[in-house]
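Review form for a predicted model. The reviewer records the input and the model, then writes brief findings.
Reviewer: anonymous (R2)
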Amino acid sequence: MNTRLPLFVNLAGRRVLVVGGGRAAERKLPALLDAGAVVTLIAPEVLESVRRLLHTSPNGELLRRCARVQDVTSDYALFFPLTDDRELNERLSVAARDAKVWVAGSTSPDDADFHLGAVVDRGPVRLAISTSGASPALAGLLAQVLRQLLPESRDGDLTALRRERHLIRSALDTPARRTALVAQAVQFLEDRPQESN
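Model under review:
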């Protein structure tokens, strides 16, 4: 039985703590900052790319020092222990859980409260792929294949679908009738000839 529930979380304005300034932080930070999270990163040394990401974001803060257990407080929604020091990661993760902060998997996916999957982003259409931490490389490969299969969303198409959905919801009384009509609208958009550039 898979005990992981896929979620899309609104992080806008929510505080996130990241400890470690290496390659793992370099991979996680763009998604967190793009989601509007307010990120505090603590590390004595950071990659230049990580420093630049935090410096250019209005939601990024860099504290150049070693992390301490008292840094992990209930002010944070999520905690990413991303150092090479497994013992430090575990100590900080215990403090995070004591503060009721969700802990991302770093050394062991089984011990994590959550992990980030590979993401395929096509406008408001987002797909997340997870192997429950068993093979991030496979999740990345599947995401790559899906990016090639799915066309980039055109803003006009999505605006039209949003408008039609609103009209349909207000005009039809049953979910089954609404679903059938929305399916017809999607099919219409798929069948249209593509605009030539």
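Findings: The first strand starts at residue 15 and ends at 19.
Further findings: Residues 155-191 form one domain.
Recommendation: see findings above.
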